[in-house]
Design goal:
The complex is a heterodimer of chains A (291) and B (383). Chain A is of the alpha/beta class. Chain A contains nine helices and 14 strands. The two termini of chain A are 20 Å apart. The relative contact order of chain B is 0.09. Classes of the chains: A alpha/beta (291), B alpha+beta (383). Chains A and B meet through helix 4 and helix 5 of A and helix 9 of B.
Chain lengths: 291, 383
């Protein structure tokens, strides 16, 4: 099981011939992922990291039966690449690229509503199910298979927390980086739903940050719908108003967007909230013992 | 990227939204010349990228051109929030019959443009939301379809508008939606949108924010960016492709990854310290980039100690350590630096650092210990 990607995943890399695309394809192959195809318009017929390259997604899917994609194409062309994936019925699309225009993403997000597909990102590290499939730029070496699901708006913060879980011999079912942009394909709730339904997941770590109100919505969902324990961590208590803190979506713009407001919502929902990243592993240990 | 009022109005005019005639002035003499040219009573308005200028005295209505110099003198150089006023907009007067509010913004949760309209203009919309919520009309637009004619009618009728004003508002709304999408704005706000005695509808103010990620296709808007309004450190970081935000404390902070750095700031505050900045150096171990980042952090005179929090992922800890050593050689910082290195090959990395680092560099294993150490060193440095 695990969620989104597993042993059944046949991955296609969109933008495989670029610097990032090529580098990470190598790493994904090394960590045992079934990378079946790459797509770069005009580079069809070539081979990168042992993976055949096609000009179009239609051709790549027809030839290889790819069912998930990871996108490295430049920001200006990302929306197009996502539409191409969705139109040929890729079920899980991970867009790694940072800097996709917000208006492009609004169109993508509304198109997604009529499609039976999941878009992760953009501006995210991707999805990794340890020991099964690595559709991500995450360092495979810090992960170990297990029963904790991880969902996060931040890359390195995820690595930090996963590393501490692994050091305590707590493995992960799937880690999902949903991305740090204002408009993303999939919010916390959809991932929490999948973890709730996944028999391999016993506990979920949710890592949020300032900006928007996705954490509040997630807190309500956890309280009303989830039976599995959730441990949360929020970053950005010291962030000033009106400043973008690295991630385009990490900005305090009144009310709900502050770390305090998110933290209060978590507490109201009875969710264990860590005050620093290291405490997450402690709280997960506690939560797993209680089950 | 936020636009000044006069820049926002330039943009609105490109989309056929009417504004009052105005001139930008950087000194009292220019302001006087502008007022003489416009004739009649004028408004002198501070141009700053922050709200609250009216309350701060940044807007003055002047009846006679000879009084404009004095008004401009009072406003120019004024501090509004953290911003210093360096320009004023001198604008012609108008006979205002009513004030309204109109904005379009990106609603993150709905993932759609949201139109807000109210017949109560000239005050904060948050305030209206509390005092008279029924006066606010909300319309979500499907970005794949664009603003539909029936939605414009709905807004106009829901708001109870009639006659010329109804027509005028409808026209402004259509044009504003075009401005919003074609300029890749994340916010366009006209507050107040006014109806004049002679039945025209025009934008008396303009607040426009453009999505930074879209600037590659809006070079003309990118050129409007006022680099001098930013903190010198923020300017330098921008040129180096680093994400830097200056704060008020004395513990300089840098690390790899936005979330990890934000979290580092929080942990420093929890340890009783006060962060001086946010700086994300990104992935990799490029010595030149790290050295530039260290210099930017240290160039803030308030900084008494520096905390460098690195998680080695794909870039292994030993590579990071070597990059850091070479960066330390390149920069000439004598402030105490606490390095916290974790992740892949972190032990090897820490060993390399321990063997080779200069006296002012301390290494710690955990974030909490590193934060405590950096705070302690900052407090020693300030006494």
């Amino acid at each position: 099981m695990a969620i989104l990607v597993d042993n059944e995943t046949r991955l296609v890399v969109q933008g495989i011939t670029g610097r990032e695309g090529r580098f990470h394809t190598g790493r994904m192959v090394e960590s045992g992922t079934n990378v079946v195809a790459g797509v770069t318009p005009g580079k069809g017929g070539q081979e990168y990291e042992g993976v055949p390259v096609f000009n179009t997604m239609e051709e790549a899917i027809e030839e290889t039966g790819a069912n998930a994609s990871v996108i490295f194409v430049p920001a200006a062309f990302c929306a197009d690449a996502i539409f191409e994936s969705l139109d040929f019925d890729i079920s899980t699309v991970c867009c790694i690229t940072e800097g996709v225009p917000v208006h492009d993403m609004m169109k993508v997000a509304n198109y997604l509503r009529v499609k039976d597909a999941t878009l992760i990102g953009p501006n995210c590290p991707g999805v990794l199910s340890p020991g099964k499939t690595n559709a991500s730029i995450m360092p495979n070496s810090i992960f170990t298979p297990g029963n904790v699901g991880v969902v996060s708006r931040s890359g390195t913060l995820t690595y930090q927390i996963v590393n501490e879980l692994t050091q305590r011999d707590i493995g992960q079912s799937t880690a999902v980086g949903i991305g740090g942009d204002p408009i993303i394909g999939t919010d916390f709730i959809e991932i929490l739903q999948q973890f709730e339904a996944d028999p391999e997941t016993d506990c979920v770590v949710m890592i949020g940050e300032i900006g928007g109100n996705a954490e509040q919505n997630a807190a309500e969902y956890v309280q009303s719908e989830m039976t599995k324990p959730v441990v949360a961590y929020i970053a950005g208590f010291t962030a000033p108003e009106g400043k973008t803190m690295g991630h385009a979506g990490a900005i305090v713009s009144g009310g709900d967007s502050t770390a305090e407001a998110k933290s209060e919502a978590l507490q109201r929902a009875g969710i264990r909230a860590a005050t620093n990243p290291s405490e997450v592993a402690e709280l997960v240990t506690e939560a797993l013992h209680e089950r | 990227m936020d636009l000044y009022e006069y820049q926002g109005k330039e943009l609105l005019r490109q989309f056929d939204i009417e504004t009052l005639e105005g001139r930008v002035a950087a000194n009292p003499e220019e302001a006087h010349a502008a007022a003489a040219e416009l004739g009649g009573p004028v408004a002198v308005k501070a141009q700053v990228l922050t709200g609250g200028r009216g309350k701060a005295g940044g807007i003055k209505v002047v009846q006679e051109p000879e009084d404009v110099e004095e008004a401009a003198r009072q406003i120019l150089g004024m501090k509004i929030g953290d911003h210093t006023v360096r320009q004023v907009l001198v604008e012609a007067g108008a006979d205002i019959a009513s004030e309204m509010y109109l904005s379009i913004l990106v609603d993150r949760a709905e993932k759609k443009p949201l139109i807000l309209f109210s017949t109560e203009g000239g005050v904060d919309i948050e305030e209206v939301a509390e005092t008279n919520p029924d006066s606010i009309v909300r319309i979500y637009v499907n970005p794949l379809l664009g603003l539909l004619p029936y939605q414009v009618r709905e807004l106009v009728f829901d708001a109870g508008l009639e006659g010329d004003v109804a027509k005028g508002v409808g026209k402004v709304l259509n044009n504003l939606y075009r401005a919003f999408t074609e300029s890749d704005a994340s916010l366009v706000e006209i507050n107040p949108l006014v109806a004049t005695e002679d039945g025209r509808v025009l934008a008396l103010d303009a607040k426009v924010t453009i999505d930074n990620s879209s600037l590659f296709r809006h070079r003309d808007i990118g050129e409007m960016h006022d680099i001098d309004a930013a903190d010198p450190g923020e300017q330098r970081a921008q040129e180096a492709g680093l994400q830097y935000v200056k704060l008020d404390g004395d513990v300089g902070i840098l690390g790899n990854g936005a979330g990890l750095v934000m979290s580092t700031l929080d942990v420093v505050a929890q340890a009783g310290g006060s962060p001086a900045n946010f700086l994300d150096v990104g992935g990799g171990a490029d010595a030149e980039k790290i050295s530039e980042a260290l210099d930017i952090v240290a160039s803030n005179q308030q900084v008494n100690s520096v905390l460098f929090n690195i998680f080695g992922g794909i870039t292994r800890g030993d590579e990071v350590a070597r990059g850091l050593l070479s960066a330390l050689e390149q920069s000439e910082i004598d402030l105490p630096i606490v390095v916290r290195l974790d992740g892949t090959n972190a032990e090897e990395g820490r060993e390399i650092l321990a063997e080779n680092t200069p006296e002012n560099v301390h290494t710690e294993e955990t974030m909490l210990d590193a934060a405590r150490k950096a705070v302690e060193l900052a407090q020693n440095g300030s006494s």
